[in-house]
Amino acid sequence: MNVLLIGGGGREHAMALGISRSPLCKKLYIAPGNTGTASLGENTPLKADDFNDVYKFVNSNQISLVVVGPELPLVEGLADFLNGLNIAVIGPGKGGARLEGSKEFAKAFMDTHHIATADFHTFQSWEIGIAKAYADSLSLPIVIKASGLAAGKGVIICETREDTHRTIEGMLSDNWFGLSGKTIVIEKFLKGIEMSVFALSDGYSYKIFPNAKDYKRIGEGDTGPNTGGMGAVSPVPFADDLLMQKIKERIIEPTFKGLKAEEIFYSGFLFFGIMVSEGEPYLLEYNCRMGDPESEVVFPLIENDLVELFMAVDAGRLDTQEIMIKPGFCTTVMLVSQGYPDEYEKGKAITVPNTLRDVTIFHAGTKQEGDEIVTNGGRIMALTAFGNTLEEALSRSYAAAELVQFEGKYYRRDIGKDLR
Ligand SMILES: Nc1ncnc2c1ncn2[C@@H]1O[C@H](COP(=O)(O)OP(=O)(O)O)[C@@H](O)[C@H]1O
Ligand SMILES: [Mg+2]
């Protein structure tokens, strides 16, 4: 069959690798794809937000399966649209995507279904006074979240009362995040260590994928501004059976039960952003798709035929599948451009020595220019490696990080260090 994969980052390169390896996949199209996916299928400039164009493309290329990488098309209802055309799609409809698209909705959902999460209140733009009063009743620091999509930038952790008030006004009255911030969630700060848990659902049952930990800050020791992700490891060494059992019982099970109770048909990936605080898991947020850069360590650990798995999702028979997970660890280190996430230069030639061993390169921000591959973004490429131990995997990712060269190369040298 012909498969269309929506997206163009490292996540989609990792998914494309899995899909292209399936004997069931005749032709893979990636929209828009990247330099890395170009060797696994055909990149196409198709825009996922133009449903008419998607319709034309899917028709003229006999697409039977559409896999949606990023959240935006899902929140906009691409999956509903494709379902209406009887095309298999991996990703929830608009209703399910609200779990990511509206933090107000997600937190209310957690509350209704008794899912462990930080204490919170939601406020609208005309409720600045009571929002401040509620924030004043919490101890510092205080977490303030724009309810709508904000490309990972809509959460502010306020260290002072002044900061808290300014942020409330900034979002509710000064349009800091446009419409996304016209409703805010104020919540209690939870101290702990974060991890990501993933499930794949067909609307009837679900399977848990390998868990992961990602590193968002630009600087070592988790300092400096947030990025699209600087590295990841899977599985998380501290996530033992007891913790995973608690996460399943207190978060995953009640979520899928809640979706059924609210008659929200959820198929596709569901990401649980977990904070482990004194050994107890709390749900920080849902994402209606896989994470990036977590995908660059999770998919390489999956031994299943991805297309077979996805078709089982479409048939509502995920219960017949068993997720086969490679033993050991997978790690990825992201190479970025000097200056990222602020200003950085593009167009620097990248050299990948052909002596590079034991590593898979997932492209994020690169461009083919004649015979050369050049930098074309902030995050350039993720260097993924396996190992029997976390140390072994990391040493391979880091050996590659040293060997790949481009002007202004930067990477964090402490990925996974906190876990050893
Ligand atoms: N209640 C909380 N306590 C402590 N840190 C939090 C809390 N909520 C969010 N954070 C931090 O802010 C980050 C972003 O919040 P999240 O809810 O994941 O929103 P998004 O990913 O949409 O920006 C989290 O990864 C976490 O580091
Ligand atoms: Mg998050």
Structure in words:
This protein has 420 residues and is an alpha+beta fold. 29% of the residues lie in helices and 30% in strands. It folds into four domains: 2-91, Rossmann fold (3-Layer(aba) Sandwich), CATH 3.40.50; 126-181, ATP-grasp fold, A domain (Dna Ligase, domain 1, 2-Layer Sandwich); 193-320, 2-Layer Sandwich (D-amino Acid Aminotransferase, Chain A, domain 1); 329-419, Phosphoribosylglycinamide synthetase, C-terminal domain (Glycinamide Ribonucleotide Synthetase, Chain A, domain 4, Alpha-Beta Complex). It has helices at 10-20, 51-60, 72-75, 78-84, 94-101, 103-112, 128-136, 161-172, 241-261, 295-298, 306-315, 390-403; strands spanning 2-7, 27-32, 42-43, 63-68, 88-90, 120-124, 142-146, 155-158, 183-188, 193-202, 206-208, 213-219, 223-234, 267-277, 280-287, 329-337, 349-350, 360-363, 366-369, 372-375, 379-387, 409-410. The longest helix is centred in the middle third of the chain and has 21 residues, at 241-261. Magnesium ion binds next to loops. Adenosine-5'-diphosphate binds at residues 118, 143, 145, 152, 154-155, 187-190, 194, 273, 284-285.
Task: Spell out the blueprint of helices and strands.
Layout: E1 2-7, H1 10-20, E2 27-32, E3 42-43, H2 51-60, E4 63-68, H3 72-75, H4 78-84, E5 88-90, H5 94-101, H6 103-112, E6 120-124, H7 128-136, E7 142-146, E8 155-158, H8 161-172, E9 183-188, E10 193-202, E11 206-208, E12 213-219, E13 223-234, H9 241-261, E14 267-277, E15 280-287, H10 295-298, H11 306-315, E16 329-337, E17 349-350, E18 360-363, E19 366-369, E20 372-375, E21 379-387, H12 390-403, E22 409-410
Parallel strand pairs: 1-2, 1-4, 2-3, 4-5
Antiparallel strand pairs: 6-9, 7-8, 7-9, 10-11, 10-14, 12-13, 13-16, 14-15, 16-21, 16-22, 17-20, 18-21, 19-20
Helix pairs in contact: 5-6, 7-8
